[in-house]
Amino acid sequence: MESRSIALEHEHDIVVARGEVRRMAAALGFGLLDQTRLATVASELARNVVKYAGRGRLIAQPVVDAGGRQGLRLVFEDSGPGIRDLAAAMRDGFSTGGGLGQGLPGSRRLVHEFQIESTPERGTRVAVVRWR
Amino acid sequence: MDGAQRIPILKVGRVLVVPIQVDMDDQTVIGLQERILAELERTRARGVLIDISLLEMVDSFIGRMLSDIAAMARIMDARTVVVGMRPAVAITLVELGLELRGVETVLNVDEGIRLLRDELDGRGDEADEALGEGLFGEPIHRA
């Protein structure tokens, strides 16, 4: 299966992103619960891009580890304002956007690997992987 | 157009029934919340039954809407029940850290109706009696 790049520019792209991630996860053999986890992560992180950066993209990429285990990697990239205090942003309940503050810390609990890099005024990149 | 998704709000007796059958974008979520509150005020409904059995995912945005509707409905003296949450959705919500504070959930529409009916019957509601009808518009027979 090929990687997919999805533009995140409008609110409706959040719906497109989670639908496409769910379809890919299903096609890769993920069960219903994992499909739901991945779609939810896609929705949370895609919303962050649209809401805070205005635009960016999601790259959804099937991956296989050394042991042959199938996974799905999701990379969210934007050139937005970045996150000033990453440690705070990763805490439950912290929000600068009037949300519930569950987006980042909650998403981390739904995946096996979670990496975030952010530079103020340069942008943010969040990469997650869930293995089957 | 994105904003054109329209979720039906059905008035059944004194309950608003909201079957969510499409994956909603954020504007639709906000619009639905506003419409439910406007309908509550207009119809003076006493219960809101939101069916999410077709929703494949509830993220923090939709979760927040459900909590907010329940909180606002309570202020307007109406009870909110969310029915049909899929097991995978429930597990994911817990892992995400969402409590859905103040939201009552039941497995299916039958149980939701029973819950709302019991609640309202138990109040001995004067307004219901004045209207001469119960939760679902049925005539109230006095003993």
What would a concise description of this structure say?
The complex is a heterodimer of chains A (about 130) and B (about 140). By secondary structure, chain A is an alpha+beta fold.
Compute the average pLDDT of chain B.
Answer: 85
CATH third-level topology of chain B: Transcription Regulator spoIIAA
* Overall number of structural domains of chain B: 1
- Class by helix and strand content of chain A? alpha+beta
CATH class of chain B: Alpha Beta
Binned strand content of chain A: 25-35%
Which regions of chain B are unreliable across 5 or more consecutive residues at pLDDT < 50? Answer: none
Q: Examine the secondary-structure arrangement and name the CATH architecture of chain A.
A: 2-Layer Sandwich
CATH class of chain A: Alpha Beta
Shape of chain B: globular
First-last Cα distance of chain B: 54 Å
Question: Please, what is the CATH homologous superfamily of chain B?
Answer: STAS domain
The helix/strand class of chain B is: alpha/beta
Point out poorly predicted stretches of chain A.
none
Measured by DSSP, the beta-strand proportion of chain B falls in 5-15%
Main sheet of chain A, how many strands, which sense, barrel? Answer: 5 strands, antiparallel
Largest interface: A-B, 28 and 24 residues
Helix content of chain B: 40-55%
Please tag this protein with its features.
heterodimer, A: 132 residues, alpha+beta, Heat Shock Protein 90, five-stranded antiparallel β-sheet, 4 helices, globular, B: 143 residues, alpha/beta, Transcription Regulator spoIIAA, five-stranded mixed β-sheet, 5 helices
